[in-house]
Records
---
Amino acid sequence: MYRCLIVADDLTGANASGVLLKTFGLSPLTLTGDLPPPTAVRAGRDALIVPTDSRAVAPEVAYRRVWDATSALAAPEVRLYTKRIDSTLRGNLGPEIDAMLDALAAVEDSDRLAVVVPAYPQAGRVAAGGYLLVNGVMLQRSDVARDPKTPVLTSRTLELVTAGSRRAAVHLPLETGYAGVDALAAALGAAYHSGNRIAVLDAVQPEDLETIADAVLAADLPFIAVDPGPFSAALAGRLLPTASGGQSRPCVLLVVGSVVATTGEQLRELYRAYDVTTAYLDPARLIAGGADWETAIQEAVATLTTAPADTEFLCLTTNCLDPTACLDLEAIARGCASDKEAVSGLINQGIATTVEQVLGAALRVGGLYLSGGDTTVAVFRRLGAIGLVLERDVLPLVAYGHLMGGRCEGMPVVTKGGAAGDKDAIKICARFLRDELASQAVARAQSGELS
């Protein structure tokens, strides 16, 4: 029986939202015919998507179509109701939101809050300051604003979302979300208890959607999601257990051997966006060798291997985030009658040894991110890999593939030069690997079901 019901205003949008659910192991079905009774929907399809073809019709027609779909398919097992809207806010948003809320109120005697997140950052749609921008251009100045059937005359999200609605609404700005999950949950609760039944939120980055999803669940309010797809997908990943038997998804080990200032900025952005268990491996202790080398490694391994079970990202780094703290390898080499290559080798061998021990522990590391050329080579050699089977790029100068040979045959890996990319680069790579691991787990589960 389905546990997620999405009512979309057109078919292509319905399919686009449904595909996002696949990442979380859900099995979506888009209906293209008459509405069946809930019991007639094939077992095993846990996300049901209904297109109403209501974007360009009269508001009262749109209302009735959404009401009919929601009323016909609402069921006690459904844990997530979503009103899918256009990513450029065209159509009958207010009447359709009212219709879903009204239908659910009639069916289950509930009084839900419509949490509206109009952003789709991955597609260039961001909401900030109460405005929607499309690829950096204000919505009303974009090409879609001149749609002959559903033109858009403003960029104000609250105005577009509530046009034609009978419900009180509030806009929650970006800084409310940036104050943290608890602060945003409190703001949602305050809005609801003040009589608002529509809350429109800003978001400019994918992780903002995850923060909002966490806050909605923390607020413990009856709600529906209203968005172009990614916010609902984030909620689905949290609300709807899949066939994985409740096991945690594999985590990503981020290995950052570059100490350049750019890498430090990228790490700061990663830490801002996600909870990361980080082990700092002091290069000076690795250079010292002997017992200091061993102790530094064991401390880092202990930090990473005792991370909470639900940790998504582990990070091993020699970058202390201080752009002025740069090792003078040449001076260090002279002081110990060695050369720069040997000194650098001690650092990279320490990193590689730590990685090997972390991967050898009883952990659920599923993928590697490696930053810095010398670090990457040292890790590959330590793991016994004979090569990297390249698959595609993640960003310019950032490659994705899987290991060939060695103790971690087939492990997904992203490699990046230390100075490559802007401040979001590590964060983007981390999210890419996390989602790639989830997609692979779904594919394996489905393959097992078919075999």
---
Amino acid sequence: MIRPHRLLKLYLLWVFHKGPKCGYDIKKELEEITEHKALSNAVIYLRLKELERKGLIEGSQGSRNKTIYTITAKGDEELERERVKTRHYLLKFQDLLEFVLDAPIGGTDHEST
């Protein structure tokens, strides 16, 4: 099962893999994706601090006293592990996903990544 905290971890690592961001930008993006205020500032910032404490991301001072986070090499490795685990889990629902998306998604449960 994909628990919400694991999905948020995967999402955050993926976002930082694409480039540096601050917590506020992430919150706004999540609100756009979910179409409502899904997470409080506290949840997002606690998760960011946890990822930083584990050495998966690094924060540095940006403009207007914002902390800008970037992914570390350890974070990239963790992102890959989480990606594989999540992909394996989601492929169990491949038929349903293809039905909902009305398009083949490719890949099989037996495919190595």
---
Amino acid sequence: MRKSLILTFVLSLVIIIFAINNNAVVTIDLIFSQIEISQAIVIFFSVLLGAAIASIVSWIREMKLKKNIKQLNLKIEELNKTIFNLEETIKEKEEQIRLLYLKDEN
């Protein structure tokens, strides 16, 4: 967590320095109009949009992984119940075999 925070801080500083060094006015051609805006603002908005998209994709992936973990935990629980039932069956069969041996000895 701490390493990612430091990395984020360093990358933010690099982006800020880059944007400040590129502060010329540029014309952006939108579909229905054109606007003139500082290149630094364009860089900041681009970075923010990229971060938002990355966050959304990461969040969706995390939700899928959590769902998968939940399903796997349910499967583990089901398999543990099956193991318990099989162990009980083995104990019963062993007892039946033991009783049969005792019966044969008599």
